[in-house]
Amino acid sequence: LCFTQESPRGRLQGYIIGKAEGVQTEWHGHITAVSVAPEYRRLSLARNMCQRLKFASDEIYKGYPVDLHECCNNTLVIKMHEVRDGKDGRDDEDAFDMRKCLSRDAAQRSIRSNGRDMIVSAHDVS
After folding, report:
1. Cα–Cα distance between 100 and 108 in angstroms, integer?
2. CA-to-CA distance for 4 and 10, rounded, in angstroms?
3. Reported confidence tier of residue 117, pLDDT bands at 50, 70, 90
4. Would you tell me how many other CB atoms lie within 10 Å of the CB of residue 55?
5. Which residues contact residue 108 at a Cβ distance below 8 angstroms, ignoring those fewer than 6 apart?
6. If you ran DSSP here, which 8-state letter would residue 118 be given?
7. pLDDT, tens digit (0-9, with 9 covering 90-100), for 22-73
């Protein structure tokens, strides 16, 4: 899955790359990378692209959650996902495994109550 955001003049403002992976109840969307050019930050472009990938993971691929592995020290992004969703990398840093339920998981079984304790080591994602 890949979405791009362009300015009215056709300049690339940002992109998101993701995938659908897993088996059975572990089938989910995964956000692999999100990037927004510095001059277009603070315009909610990353949030909007994440919503588009969430929609595709839910409606097209019928995943249970959508997740991303976020660097433990990236407090801005972690707060964005916690505030927006109410739940809770770089190759050389540990990361949080953050999840958001999709409609297929109405019982919210894929969400972990101890989400901040679910650390993904750099070795596991590289």
Report:
1. 9
2. 11
3. low
4. 13
5. 101
6. -
7. 999 889 998 888 899 999 988 989 889 989 999 999 999 999 988 876 665 6
Q: How many CA atoms lie within 13 A of 84 on its CB side?
A: 17
Residues 6+ apart with CB under 8 A from 69: 89, 95, 96, 97, 98, 120, 125
Task: Report in angstroms the alpha-carbon separations of 49 from 12, 14, 16, 33, 112.
Answer: 13, 9, 6, 11, 24
pTM of the predicted model as reported, rounded to 2 decimal places: 0.67
Q: Which two tokens stand for residue 52?
A: 């588009």
* Structural contact between residues 62 and 42, judged by C-beta atoms closer than 8 angstroms: no
Within a 10 A sphere around the Cβ of 95, how many other Cβ atoms?
Answer: 22
> Which ranges of 20-74 would DSSP assign to H, the alpha helix?
45-55
Q: What does the buried/exposed string (b/e) look like for 17-39 if buried means 16 or more CB atoms within 10 Å of the residue's CB?
A: bbebebeeeebbbbbbebebeee
User: Which residues lie closer than 8 Å to 12 by C-beta, 6 or more apart?
Assistant: 4, 5, 6, 37
Rounded distance, CA 14 to CA 40, Å?
8
